[in-house]
């Protein structure tokens, strides 16, 4: 009876406690200028730098008559996601575990899952803000057409965010220390950047390479966003790849994640 009486107040106060965790984590995020810059500002800055190159504003036959700057708007959207999922989130969550913060929370109304949920919510929102910045700057500065298939673009972006943060959760689960989380995140970072088209847009890749890249989560995301930007509904194959990766990565994170 005592355990029931203790558990009931805890259960009743958990929503308020989770809200308090979210507010605290948001304040900490705002005090990290590095994270704010790399996630929310750097992708748009990269778009401005690339768009300032004259050749990026010329039509390109390999891109179906589009310009390179048009193709790089979805790329900068995904770059923000890569920064959040692989460079920012894993070291932070792993650091909480390494310092025993998650273990201590288990004795309070705050569940450790509230911390992970708060991080995913904050980084997901930051990625959305960065995406809006890239789309706005692309439109106002370089006359990039806004996505013609807005609903399909939003769906592809949502799946991409869930997939990227799930990948970050897997890295957080597998890394025993903060240094290991940083190392693993960096090792995965560059292949994800390549598959997202940071160095070469997926649409401009040779056919065989493009088919391989499209099986990667961010390669499929780049193609889905590009299709929606051109006015087409994203390919069910690309959306299916994103959904499959999200399910697999989420299941892996849930299986391997350790709170202590």
From TrEMBL:
Membrane topology, from the record: Multi-pass membrane protein
One Gene Ontology molecular-function label: ABC-type transporter activity
Pfam name, any one: ABC2_membrane
CC annotations in GO: ATP-binding cassette (ABC) transporter complex
Transmembrane helix as UniProt keyword: yes
Keywords carried by this UniProt record: Antibiotic resistance, Cell membrane, Membrane, Transmembrane, Transmembrane helix, Transport
Compartments, as annotated in UniProt: Cell membrane; Membrane
Taxonomic superkingdom: Bacteria
Major location (coarse): membrane
Domain ABC transmembrane type-2 span(s) in chain numbering: 34-260
InterPro entries: ABC-2_transporter, ABC2_TM, ABC2_TM_bact-type, ABC_2_transport
Segments crossing the lipid bilayer: 35-56, 71-93, 114-138, 150-174, 181-200, 236-257
GO biological process: response to antibiotic
Family in the record: Belongs to the ABC-2 integral membrane protein family.
Name by which UniProt lists this protein: Transport permease protein
């Amino acid at each position: 009876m005592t355990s029931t009486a203790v558990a009931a107040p805890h259960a009743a106060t958990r929503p308020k406690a989770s809200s308090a965790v979210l507010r605290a984590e948001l304040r900490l995020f705002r005090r990290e200028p590095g994270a704010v810059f790399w996630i929310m500002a750097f992708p748009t800055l990269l778009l401005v730098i690339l768009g300032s190159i004259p050749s990026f504003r010329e039509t390109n036959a390999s891109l179906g008559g589009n310009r390179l700057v048009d193709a790089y708007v979805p790329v900068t959207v995904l770059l923000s996601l890569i920064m959040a999922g692989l460079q920012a989130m894993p070291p932070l969550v792993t650091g909480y575990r390494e310092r025993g913060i998650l273990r201590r929370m288990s004795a309070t109304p705050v569940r450790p899952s509230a911390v992970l949920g708060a991080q995913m919510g904050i980084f997901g929102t930051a990625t959305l803000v960065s995406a809006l910045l890239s789309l706005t700057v692309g439109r106002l500065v370089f006359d990039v057409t806004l996505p013609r298939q807005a609903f399909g673009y939003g769906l592809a972006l949502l799946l991409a965010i869930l997939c990227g943060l799930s990948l970050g959760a897997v890295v957080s689960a597998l890394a025993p220390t903060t240094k290991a989380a940083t190392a693993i995140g960096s090792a995965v970072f560059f292949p994800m950047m390549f598959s997202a088209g940071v160095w070469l847009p997926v649409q401009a890749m040779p056919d065989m390479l493009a088919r391989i890249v499209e099986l990667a989560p961010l390669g499929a995301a780049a193609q889905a966003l590009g299709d929606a930007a051109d006015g087409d509904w994203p390919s069910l194959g690309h959306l299916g790849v994103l959904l499959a990766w999200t399910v697999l990565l989420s299941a892996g994170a849930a299986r391997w994640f350790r709170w202590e």
